[in-house]
Amino acid sequence: MLIPIGHENLRGRRWPYISIAIIALNVLAFLGTHWTIEVQSAETGEVESHILMMAGAHPDLKMTTEAQRFVDGFMQSNPKVAASLRSGNREVEDAWDARMRLVEDPAALQSEMDGLCQQYSEKVEGSLLHNYGYVPAAPHAASYLTSMFLHGGWMHLIFNMWFLWLAGTILEDTWGRAIYPAFYLLCGLLATVVHGIASSGSTIPALGASGAVAGLMGAFLVRFPKTKIRMMWMFLLGFRLFRYRFDAPAYALLPLWLAGEMLSGVFFGQSSGVAHWAHIGGFAAGAAFAFLLGKSGLEQKANQEIEAKVTWTSGEKMAAATDALEQNDVDGALALVKQHLAQKPDDLQGQEMLLSLFWRKQDTDAYRDQLAVVCRAHVNAREMDKAWERYEEYIGAGGAKLHKAVWMEICRYLETRQNWDRAAEEYQKLAQAYAGDRAGVSALVAAAKIYSKQLHRSHDAEKLYQKAQASPVPHSDLDVAIRTGLAEVNGELVGSSAR
User: Fold this and answer.
1) pLDDT digits (tens, 9 = 90+) for 3-57
2) Whose C-alpha in 95, 277, 298, 369 is 20 to 30 A from the C-alpha of 2?
3) Which pTM was predicted?
4) In terms of Cα–Cα distance, which of 318, 396, 402 is closest to 364?
């Protein structure tokens, strides 16, 4: 399984309230309808299967227009199943099927079909899916909107909302809280229209936010084509789950996803149970609208308004915090700086001021934790000398465990300074702190390389390589480095013994 887990621009200038609200609406709609839909779908599905069996075995029986439309749409979309239903060689499905195979009286058969059609009409009339999902053969005007907030299952909901969060939050930050929701809804509506055109005779309700989310993905490709998306590839080999992470630009990944949807739409259509053409339509609409927004100047205007508001608000709060501090109102200054950082979490001035305020309050725990935050902020800003200073203070204040990515950068910084002993020591501390994580294995390998190549301590290098090799954490991408390192240090040890 290949899934996105983040991207470079995930952090915006403001809280993405619209994206959060859309996700909340989808979750609430799911919680309010899911179990009812499951029960209704099971009941309707039983009636539908009986109608299909009757229609396949007795094609001359009359049906209501609604039932006939359902049968015709199903037979066209599932030709293999249709052939099986008509052949009469299929296995008995249930007790009803066994009983009906014994009936030969045309009047009795027609009476049974009439009853099934009546049941079908009643089930459809009271069905949440048929009333609020989008049915291409008989769409309700409201269903173009309501279908976007219904989902068929937990995984359907989770994946749609995760993709919405990844693509939507940065677009909301770019376009603002007026353009973004209008864009989202418009992409969803057009995706539904495309699905309706591609599946005009279908009576299967379509639902989900995937058409609108595909629009966000199309817009993301147009607006941020070079942004690197962090991906995770997970696969089972035997009884072990392997994970591999990598980064790839949007211009490489998203067109591949679109190509996959197009191939699926052409070769599988509705039979896959996925509205591929809704995804394609939403993606195309999102890309086109994003391009037009950029050319029209609306995006630039919205971005300038957001930047002006964020800058003014943040500057005002920092100025007010400085004034409060001059009046010895440490608590007031602290509250203002926290408000400022809620809007601009990457602001180093604010993070450093918060650190000094914790020191003024003699809150040692908060001061120590904030040192780790400031260290990370300096690493993100590539101010490694300052990051190292703050890390030393963090250790002196009793800190023991940095975020693994920040800690790894600190270790690499020590290597660039050729502070080999300290670099090896920090790599080993990182490995111990993250023993159950791939970062821990990577740190062991890095420390072993330093001991082998820089400090000429082959015994220590061998122990670390062996420890990395024995780690239960999946690390297949490090196996070559571990084997090569062991071979090198073993050769050194053998050569030393021979001498």
Assistant:
1) 888 887 666 667 889 999 999 999 999 999 999 999 999 999 999 999 999 998 8
2) 277
3) 0.63
4) 396
42: amino acid identity, one letter: A
Helix (H) or strand (E) holding 232: strand 228-237
Contact 113, 54 (CB under 8 A): yes
* Cα→Cα distances 353→79, 154, 344, 371, 470, Å: 69, 43, 13, 11, 45
Helix spans in 15-105 (H): 17-57, 65-77, 79-87, 95-100
Give yes or no for a contact between 230 and 245, defined as CB atoms under 8 angstroms apart.
Answer: yes
Structure tokens at 246: 């990598």
Burial zone of 1 (CB within 10 Å; 0-12 exposed, 13-18 middle, 19+ buried): exposed
pLDDT tens digits, one per residue of 107-122? 999 999 999 999 999 9
Question: Could you report how far apart the first and last alpha carbons of the chain are, in Å?
Answer: 52
Q: Which residue has the tokens 């989008």?
A: 134
List the strands of the sheet with 240-249, edge to edge. 2-7, 228-237, 240-249
Beta strands, E only, 49-176 = none
Q: How does strand 2-7 pair with strand 228-237? A: antiparallel
140: left (phi over 0), alpha (psi -120 to 50) or beta: beta
- Per residue in 365-386, pLDDT (tens digit) is 999 999 999 999 989 888 899 9
How long a stretch of residues is the chain? 499
- For residue 247, list its beta bridge partners: 230
Full set of structural domains in the chain with CATH = 2-294 (no CATH), 329-498 (1.25.40.10)
